[in-house]
Amino acid sequence: MMSTLHQQFLNPPEEFTPIPFWFWNDRLTKEEIIRQINDFYAKGVTGFVLHPRIGIPEEIVYLSDSYFQFVHTAVEEAKRLGMQVILYDEAMYPSGSAKGLVVKDNPEYASKGLKMIEYPCNKNEEIRINLVEKNSLVSVQAVKKLSSESIDLSSSKKLIVHKGKVSFCPPDDGNWSILVFVEAFSGGSIRGIHFGEDDGEEHAPASADLLNPKAVAKFIQITHDSYYDRLKDYFGNTVIAMFTDEPDILGRGAKAGLKPWTRDFLSYYKQHGNKEEHLASLWFYAGDETETYRNNYRKAVNSRLTEAYYEQISKWCERHGIALTGHPAGSSDIGLLEHFHIPGQDVVWRWVAPEDGKAIEGVHSTAGKCSADAARHRGRRRNLNEFLGVCSKESPWALTPGDMKWYIDWLLVRGVNLLCPHAFYYSIDGKKRSHERPPDVGPNNLWWPYYKQFAQYMKRLSWLMTDSINQTRIAILCGEDYLPWKIAKHLYENQIEFNYLEDSLISSKSLLTEGQIKIENQAYNTFIIEDSSMLADTLLEKLELFIQGGGEIISLINEDETLTIKGVKTIDRAEEIIDTLSIVQHEEVMISPKCKDIRVSKIIKDSELFYFFVNEGEENYNGSFVLKEKGSVEKWDAWTGSIEKVNLRNRGGNLVVPLLLERRSSLVYAVHINQQPLIGEEERADFTIEKLELDKNWYVNNHQLFALESWHLWKGMESFSGTVVYENLFTLDEIASIKKVFLNLGEVYEIVKVTLNGYEVGVKMWAPYHFEVNPDYVRKGVNKLTIEVTNNRANEMDNARLPSGLLGPITFEAHVCKKEKSHHYI
Question: Between the CA atoms of 647, 652, 654 and 656, what dihedral angle is there, to the nearest 10 degrees?
């Protein structure tokens, strides 16, 4: 079994390839399409999302015969190479409009919203309600104003409109207003694929009414049926899914002040437990129940969107042998993933990032777990994340390969197992293309020659995180569009794994037995509640039974909150969660020394146990972890493809596993239960360390450098992006006693390829720029060290003038056997 797993890890099936967005954003030719697909394939990328994007010339009309000729070329070439294709259901985004074609012949299918118009009310004054053409009246109410922003909802009165007029006599001298609620066209749009069709531009396509099942059916007819008619022979084999992208109910650039709405939605709204009088609370503060009313409205909208849009498209995909994938608009919209066969999410705009605590703080820090846990609790094998879009730091193109690796690890350790890089650009010709949601994270970036290693890394860990079960027994209770992060932060920092579980799934899909709540392959004996106000009465009853059976519930309580569940442990501050959890939860994974930057997922795959560690911090970690189980251990490195047995330490009766995680690194430890572990003592140093500083005598193009400094300071190189070759000659007069050799380059920007005496030492793309050199590469006498440094493309694309090149300090370090005569350097 383990030898088979070794092979699958080292050479995983192409099913686990990254599947990037491929921006079709220029004049298309069959020859160039085929060339680019083969370029992807050569780099280990064996799938793509075929995404029409702004920059396509107007003569290539969306969904026309000429358009589909290019689509057919791409899909046919993918089939020939055994690649996977995900079709994209829109021309640009957000989805649902078919580039305005839904509305073009059906103006009534344009997106709609609820508008509120306020009329001050004077005694016995009759008010004429003048509706704009095609707007319809939803409700008229009289409300008592307590301030400009608050009302007394209990005094609200529904009014009857007669012949376009309404009259109302206030019962007291309070400040009364008449509120008119109108269904209006939102005026929203989507982004188109031709220049002049972007946000705010004259020809931006009209957005469609996604809450209207008939409008969505029209969208499916225009888009999905057209793809199937042309590509039916590829569906279910080469074409594996349809991607829907953050559908926007009102559309982009909609009129201000509108709330999502559709024709006859009032009755639907009321059927979901709301009252007509509650509409005013969507605009005004209406007492302690305001947030409840707004949440209930939002739930009604989400329910309608699910029925009208997601469910309808999902059923179409099922009938046609492919999966529905993509993602909703919000990072916390876990409930809207109900009908996705491959649930998805989106990490964009550097809302999640290595710096400033963004990895585990804020509403967007939940996006990775959102898709992963939606899949876990719905029995879905795969979940997707579109990532790296506009995730640069200093300027639009200033994404580093090290940060790209960070995002990959951030997703994988949270359980995402289908990675969708955003994006590979067909063309970067002209700033309108090159700076439309940059950067290109594929063939038009400077790391592309080394991308095969990235692709293989993603495949290996996507394989590991598929068909596996993470071993946490902790669930954080969440809502359909609410994923708490404040308590989750402290769990992350203490290597305590958890999953988000929606309240609705506890009520509908879970099994309660003997102090556990079981759902799909997961079983939980601890529940954490960050906001008890979200708990429905039916859920309270089930949670009480859970506690009675031996389950543990911990709830964060605010000052004005009371929780009626008997036996709940309460905390006043989020950080108290660590001391309140049962000790068994602490002992699942224990590292030493403690470190807030280490993340872990402990999983079972094919009956084997794995620990997957990731370093999300900026410093190297050198420590260990306690092996809770008894068995032998192997260390699997997904980046290098190495597998090696691990010598364990015996400390106080515990088996301890060494854990060295450099910055931007991950490691997998495979535990072979009940096999005899290798126990080893700490290795004693039998060598001395001798160092040679190599900060002088560097040459670039046969010109000697007086000092190592950023080349953006050199005349004519201020905005240069590319590769500079550094050379250095140094002399060793004795090499026989050298046991190991290390080269530390210090500060580098940012991809380096090192050669010593014609032997390739290796490539590094992020700090630490530390190499172990094969001692056989070292010569007695003169040695030639060559370092090729490639900087960031932001200097060329953005004139960013970022630090570039080899800055050092550079150290050549030899471990010399103690018993032999030490050599020295000249």
Answer: -40
Instruction: Give the pLDDT score at 98.
Output: 98
User: How far apart are alpha carbons 71 and 226 in whole angstroms?
Assistant: 12
Residue 821 has a pLDDT of 37
With beta carbons less than 8 A apart as the criterion, state whether 271 and 253 touch. Answer: no
Report d(CA 814, CA 550) in Å as an integer: 59
Neighbours of 654 (CB within 10 A): 13
Q: What is the pLDDT of residue 265?
A: 98
Q: Supply the pLDDT for residue 76.
A: 98
What is the rounded distance in angstroms from the CA atom of residue 721 to the CA atom of residue 447? 12
pLDDT tens by residue, 267-281: 999 999 999 999 999
Q: pTM for this structure?
A: 0.96
Residue 664: left if φ>0, alpha if ψ -120 to 50, beta else—which one? left
Q: Partners of 625 in the beta sheet?
A: 591, 657
Predicted local distance difference test score (pLDDT) of residue 342: 98
What does residue 257 show for φ and ψ, rounded to 5 degrees?
A: 85, 0
Q: Which value, in Å, is the radius of gyration of the alpha carbons in the chain? A: 30
pLDDT < 50 positions in the chain: 820-826
Beta-bridge mates of residue 598: 615
User: Which tokens hold the place of 588?
Assistant: 């699942």
Q: Name 604's Cβ contacts closer than 8 Å, sequence gap at least 6.
A: 468, 469, 471, 610
Strands of 47-52's sheet in order across: 323-327, 239-245, 84-88, 47-52, 21-24, 424-425
Please, are residues 52 and 62 in contact by the beta-carbon 8 Å criterion?
yes
